[in-house]
Amino acid sequence: MKQSGKCFLCLLSLGLILSVSETVAQDTPDKTLIVNGAAVNAAVVQVQGRSYVDIEGLAQALGGSVTFEPNQIALTIPGPPPPPAPPTSEGMTKEFQQMAVSALTEMREWRGAIGTLITTGMPVAGTWSQDYHDRVEADLMQTTLAAATEPDRQALRLLQQEFALLAEWAANVIGERQALKAARTIDPNSLQNDRSLAKISKCGQFLSSMIVSGTFYDDSSCR
Questions:
Q1: Closest-CA residue to 123 (of 182, 190, 171)
Q2: Distance of alpha carbon 187 from alpha carbon 189, whole angstroms
Q3: What residues does each domain of the chain span?
Q4: Where are the beta strands (DSSP E) in 64-219?
Q5: Which residues of 148-170 are buried (b: 16+ CB within 10 A; e: fewer)?
Q6: pLDDT digits (tens, 9 = 90+) for 38-75
Q7: Is the Cβ–Cβ distance between 215 and 151 less than 8 Å?
Q8: Do residues 197 and 165 make contact, with C-beta atoms less than 8 angstroms apart?
Q9: Across-strand partners of 33?
Q10: CA–CA separation, 171 vs 114, rounded Å?
Q11: What is the DSSP letter of 127?
């Protein structure tokens, strides 16, 4: 009888403890969890001086995931994003600028000589246009060797594009003149209405301004 009485008292005491613990957990109001200054939608309760958080709500709020296994709970929280690359203060080198300006000057003279050929109707004699082509090509080779920074290389690509446009236009004009096609010469507004020449001129003006500034930026006229 004494043993039975003791067992009954133990069971009664355990029941009271569980009941009190459950009552405390139910009566304690939920608290708001703040993570890095932002409220997280995950319930927090206090039981006997300890704080407990809803792990699934926490994982969802932090963009993570939680996996329940028989012997463990795995919580995965994504790491912070990589910091943005610092802005570069790198500009064009002085040597590149000098070589690029020299190449642009040669291209401008070549363009002017072809324009004079159109407006005056002069016959094509000698290899002067090819000589201009070769000098500009040599200047661009030196400019390529001088390109040391990314802005240098970006500007170089536009210079090469300007050279390609100019060379194509000059070859067309020379070819027409050699074939005795005088349409460009007869038209007094030939240069003003020449879209290819307008594009080349606009690109050349842009390149001169951009290269002198030492800071690379793009323009559709050189595309």
A1: 182
A2: 5
A3: 27-81, 94-222
A4: 65-69, 72-76
A5: eeebbeebbebbeebbebbbebb
A6: 776 767 777 777 776 677 776 777 777 767 776 777 77
A7: yes
A8: no
A9: 40
A10: 10
A11: T
Q: Which two tokens stand for residue 190?
A: 């030939």
* Dist. CA 178–CA 124, nearest whole Å: 7
And the tokens for 99? 């070589």
Look up residue 8 and give its amino acid. F
Q: What angle do CA 5, 7, 8 make, to 5 degrees?
A: 65
Instruction: List 204's β-bridge partners, or say none.
Output: none
CA 218/CA 16 separation, integer angstroms: 79
Instruction: Give the chain's radius of gyration (CA, Å).
Output: 40
Q: Name the residue with tokens 């390109």.
A: 147
Helix 195-213 and helix 150-178: axis angle, to 10°? 150
Render pLDDT for 127-165 as a digit per residue (tens, 0 to 9). 999 999 999 999 999 999 999 999 999 999 999 999 999
Identify any residues that bridge with 31 across adjacent strands, giving them in sequence order.
44
pTM comes to 0.59
For β-strands 31-35 and 65-69, DSSP reports them as: unpaired
How big is the chain, counted in residues? 223
